[in-house]
């Protein structure tokens, strides 16, 4: 079967990297794992052997059928042919009587951000997340205020999770070789996320503020937020020092404080 570009199919073929990924995930006999995009099953079987159960969601019907016949004798594996972005995880886990899953994915790069957002919207169903992503995306995900790649995605990650880059993966580890370097990352949900930032406004308002602030990266917060809130409101708010800064220099704690002042 030829790899399909439209599904971002670059299959992991390096046994050493497979070993490193499995050692990092370190599946336990009680773990239930959601694997997004199992493809040819580079990680799936090992995950299924070592854990309680693997739920593998694959969009490509032909690959799904192939993997299904290869894994026919294996219990502890449920193969689901679906687009993860349309998959009702809440309903699925409720029917399976499962509280939480660990997530493992060598992500198709074209949907990295939507998948990360999908997972964050369901963060209370997730124990932890291991992802292979493009190296530049990994830098954006873990960037802190002041870093060149810091943006709204970095703020969302910092709000929801503790994030770490575990190791780099070279293009030669995949078939076909992608044009970019990759990195394997680990995200651990923060259960105290609102308390940690003393966030009193809603998460929706907080995210709206962050998105609007980074809407025009080179402009000050005042310029970017005046569209959302109006110049008069911002003048009355009196946060002059903060509003004259560019979004890349503002830590997530400061966005939370501003969100409380505006919406809290
Ligand atoms: N896990 C395999 C590996 O490591 O070799 C495959 C990785 S490949 C980069 C990404 C996989 O995700 C492909 O099998 C692709 O068909 C699947 N995929 C792409 N978009 C998807 C989606 N929206 N939902 C579920 N699977 C998807």
From TrEMBL:
Domain of life: Bacteria
PROSITE patterns: RRNA_A_DIMETH (PS01131), SAM_RNA_A_N6_MT (PS51689)
Transmembrane segment boundaries: none
GO MF term set: 16S rRNA (adenine(1518)-N(6)/adenine(1519)-N(6))-dimethyltransferase activity; RNA binding
Annotated EC: 2.1.1.182
Subcellular location: Cytoplasm
Catalytic activity: adenosine(1518)/adenosine(1519) in 16S rRNA + 4 S-adenosyl-L-methionine = N(6)-dimethyladenosine(1518)/N(6)-dimethyladenosine(1519) in 16S rRNA + 4 S-adenosyl-L-homocysteine + 4 H(+)
Position of the signal peptide: none
Assigned GO CC terms: cytosol
InterPro entries noted in UniProt: KsgA/Erm, rRNA_Ade_diMease-like_C, rRNA_Ade_Mease_Trfase_CS, rRNA_Ade_methylase_Trfase_N, rRNA_adenine_dimethylase, SAM-dependent_MTases_sf
CDD domains per UniProt: AdoMet_MTases (cd02440)
Gene3D superfamilies registered for this protein in UniProt: Ribosomal RNA adenine dimethylase-like, domain 2, Vaccinia Virus protein VP39
Protein residues bound to S-adenosyl-L-methionine: 10, 12, 37, 58, 83, 106
Residues in Ribosomal RNA adenine methylase transferase N-terminal domain copies: 17-191
SMART domains, A to Z: rADc
Alphabetic keyword roster: Cytoplasm, Methyltransferase, RNA-binding, rRNA processing, S-adenosyl-L-methionine, Transferase
DNA-binding as UniProt keyword: no
Matches recorded under HAMAP family: 16SrRNA_methyltr_A
Protein role: Specifically dimethylates two adjacent adenosines (A1518 and A1519) in the loop of a conserved hairpin near the 3'-end of 16S rRNA in the 30S particle. May play a critical role in biogenesis of 30S subunits.
Similarity-based family: Belongs to the class I-like SAM-binding methyltransferase superfamily. rRNA adenine N(6)-methyltransferase family. RsmA subfamily.
Name by which UniProt lists this protein: Ribosomal RNA small subunit methyltransferase A
Origin species: Velamenicoccus archaeovorus
């Amino acid at each position: 079967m030829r790899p399909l570009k439209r599904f971002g199919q670059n299959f992991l073929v390096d046994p050493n990297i497979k070993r490193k990924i499995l050692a990092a995930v370190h599946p336990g006999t009680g773990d239930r794992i959601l694997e997004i995009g199992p493809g040819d099953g580079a990680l799936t079987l090992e995950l299924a052997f070592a854990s309680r159960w693997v739920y593998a969601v694959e969009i490509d019907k032909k690959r799904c059928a192939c993997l299904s016949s290869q894994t026919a004798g294996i219990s502890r594996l449920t193969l689901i042919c679906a687009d993860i972005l349309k998959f009702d995880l809440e309903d699925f886990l409720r029917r399976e009587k499962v509280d939480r899953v660990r997530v493992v994915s060598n992500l198709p790069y074209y949907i990295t951000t939507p998948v990360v957002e999908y997972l964050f919207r369901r963060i209370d169903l997730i124990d932890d997340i291991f992802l292979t992503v493009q190296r530049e995306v990994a830098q954006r995900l873990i960037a802190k205020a002041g870093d060149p790649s810091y943006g709204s995605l970095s703020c969302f990650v910092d709000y929801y999770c503790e994030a770490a880059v575990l190791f780099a993966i070279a293009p030669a580890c995949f078939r076909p070789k992608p044009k970019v370097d990759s990195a394997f990352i680990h995200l651990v949900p923060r259960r105290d996320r609102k308390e940690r930032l003393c966030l009193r406004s809603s998460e929706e308002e907080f995210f709206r503020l962050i998105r609007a602030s980074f809407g025009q990266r080179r402009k000050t917060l005042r310029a970017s937020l005046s569209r959302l809130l109006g110049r008069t409101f911002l003048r009355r708010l009196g946060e002059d020092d903060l509003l004259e800064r560019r979004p890349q220099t503002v830590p997530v704690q400061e966005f939370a404080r501003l969100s409380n002042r505006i919406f809290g």
